[in-house]
Amino acid sequence: MLSVPIETQILFAGILFFLGLIGLLVRRNLVFMLMSIEIMFNSAGLVFIIAARHWNQPDGQVMFIFILAVTAVEVAIGLALILQVYHHFKTLDVDAINKLKDVD
Amino acid sequence: MDIFFYIAAAIAIISTIMAISGRNAIHSLLFLILSLLSISVIFYLLNAPFIAALEVIIYAGAIMVLFIFVTMMLNIGLERKQESRWLTPQMWIIPSIFAAILFVDLILALKNMPTAVAGTEVILPKQVGISLFTTYLPAVEIAAILLMAGVIGAYHLGSQKKKVLHRFLVKK
Is residue A88 within a helix (H) or strand (E), and if so which, with residue range? Predict the structure, then answer.
């Protein structure tokens, strides 16, 4: 039986979440930013699973299934937007997408 | 049993670091798939075999295939000049420090958490299904509406429209 303390498990999920956060803040490529958001979603789901095991209830796993549905929708819309951005700007650099900014 | 958890956790963390710091998009996606597979092993160790299977099928299977298709369609194997300029240390050090401060905050919060004995029973798919379709039935319907909206939105955004300029703008 797994006897890793729950603090270590949540610590692991936290490490994954902050790796995703750093990736989202640092990378400027839209595909990499969407990947970082995926990592963060996944670590949030991991916390739900840890809690489900901790309390011996299936509710956390149900929540993970909902996170899965939300993630699927988010990825589909995000990748469609990335395709549109690439067709308009010929680049995936988020800094190139500044047409809403005031021209000075 | 514990050693499996630590091995899978180490593989997940290392491959996630490789994924977010990689220069080639396809290599990063392959590292991300490795990370998802090791997290799936951890789900299995955490008494959630159903979720472990879903993680492999939906995350590592469906979602990552979408990513790889888009990456291949856009032909973005190599990194742009702009991004290599962004990846100099003085650019990433400040966001990383802020994220590290938040992480230390989380560790301190975990230190003060009351400990209890963890559950030992495997939660079977039957229990998950019963809970999903009785207690959480409204949420399932909302998720269905969300998926429908996602399908329509992705279709609308993905379609290539012919650019039509106004007749006064055509001359320009």
Answer: helix A59-89
Does A96 or A57 have the greater pLDDT score? A57
| Among A16, A28, A27, A12, residue whose Cα is nearest residue A85 | A28
Say whether pLDDT at B166 is over 80.
no
Residue pair B38/A52 in contact by the 8 Å Cβ criterion? no
Residue A49 lies in a domain: yes
pLDDT digits (tens, 9 = 90+) for B99-135: 788 778 777 777 776 665 666 678 888 888 998 899 9
Residues A76, B96: C-beta atoms closer than 8 Å:
no
| A63 belongs to a structural domain | yes
Please check whether residue B85 touches A, CB under 8 A.
no
The ipTM value here is: 0.89
A30 is in which domain, residue-wise? 7-95
Residues of chain A contacting B71 with CB distance shorter than 8 Å = 31
**Is B45 touching A (CB cutoff 8 A)?**
yes
